[in-house]
Amino acid sequence: MSHPPDFVVQFWGVRGSIPAPSSETVRYGGNTSCVEMRVAGKRLIFDGGTGLRVLGEHLMKHLPIEAYMFFTHSHWDHIQGFPFFKPAFIRGNCFHIYGAIAPNGATMKQRLHDQMLHPNFPVPMQVMQSDLKFYDLFPGDVMNIDDITIETGPLNHPNTAMGYRVTWQGRTVVYATDTEHFPDRMDENLLHLARDANILIYDACYTDEEYHDPKSPKVGWGHSTWQEAVKLAKAARVRKAVIFHHDPNHTDDFLDEVEAQVQAVFPNSILAREGMILPVV
């Protein structure tokens, strides 16, 4: 009898910026950022974009739920699924929620609370009946959940963002979305976070051509390119690179072409697809 893998990554939302449902985004998916890691019987959730709603529907078959939620930051595409996360409304479930304090001093609890206030949303966070436990993290913090180690690091993004490195029994997955590469050097924080990782999930919203487009450059927008993902993966000795946070305007056919280009220069790489499950080996 085969046993389920003890460390897997599942992608519930892989888009950036805004949901992009369309007949041209079916294969890669249109939901925004949400990644689940199932590690040694624990459930870790990274970001709460619209993919979190889909994960929530799945979790309804597995009640009661205890999970650990980690937010990179609170731009809309990373929190907009939280008000629609059905298990959070059910008594008996427990969610440990982690995030950094924003530059204006707002905690993650405040920001998730505020997006559900009138006049922007009909139901306040207080209606959620599950046990919501909030914790502040600071970039550079290291924490443990039993024998799972979670390291954090700062990412280069407007209003800041935080990357996460999850290690268990010598295997590591790094979640580093919403980060912009530097023009003249490697990001030392990212190099350290991604060192020798089995899997690196990296924000490659643009191609180099789009990033430097003279008519509409994306410099300073807080995102990176697949070419920079490959550079980082090679420099950090990453085994598998996962291209993530797809631009809402990138169709399935466009992303197919990107994947072929990425794999030509870094064969052990893949583009994130909604529903994709990767065992960490």
- Give the low-confidence spans: none
Radius of gyration over all CA atoms, rounded: 18 Å
Strand order of the largest sheet: 6-5-4-3-2-1-14
Proportion of residues in β-strands: 25-35%
3D shape: globular
Instruction: Classify the secondary structure makeup into a structural class.
Output: alpha/beta
Question: How far is it from the N-terminal to the C-terminal residue, by CA?
Answer: 19 Å
Contiguous helical run count = 7
Task: Indicate the mean pLDDT.
Answer: 96
Order of helices and strands: EEEHEHEHEEEEEHEHHEHEE
Helix content: 10-25%
Topology of helices and strands:
Blueprint: E1 7-13, E2 34-39, E3 42-46, H1 51-59, E4 66-70, H2 76-79, E5 94-100, H3 108-114, E6 131-137, E7 142-145, E8 148-155, E9 161-168, E10 171-176, H4 188-194, E11 199-203, H5 208-211, H6 226-235, E12 240-244, H7 252-265, E13 269-271, E14 277-279
Parallel strand pairs: 3-4, 4-5, 5-6, 10-11, 11-12, 12-13
Antiparallel strand pairs: 1-2, 1-14, 2-3, 7-8, 8-9, 9-10
List keywords for this structure.
globular; 281 residues; alpha/beta; single chain; 7-stranded mixed β-sheet; 7 helices
Word description of this protein:
It is a single chain. This protein has 281 residues and is of the alpha/beta class. The two termini are 19 Å apart. The protein has helices at 51-59, 76-79, 108-114, 188-194, 208-211, 226-235, 252-265; strands at residues 7-13, 34-39, 42-46, 66-70, 94-100, 131-137, 142-145, 148-155, 161-168, 171-176, 199-203, 240-244, 269-271, 277-279. The protein is built from seven helices and 14 strands. Helix content is 20%, strand content 28%. The longest helix has 14 residues, at 252-265. The strands form two sheets. A seven-stranded mixed beta sheet has the order 6-5-4-3-2-1-14. The chain has a seven-stranded mixed beta sheet with strand order 7-8-9-10-11-12-13.
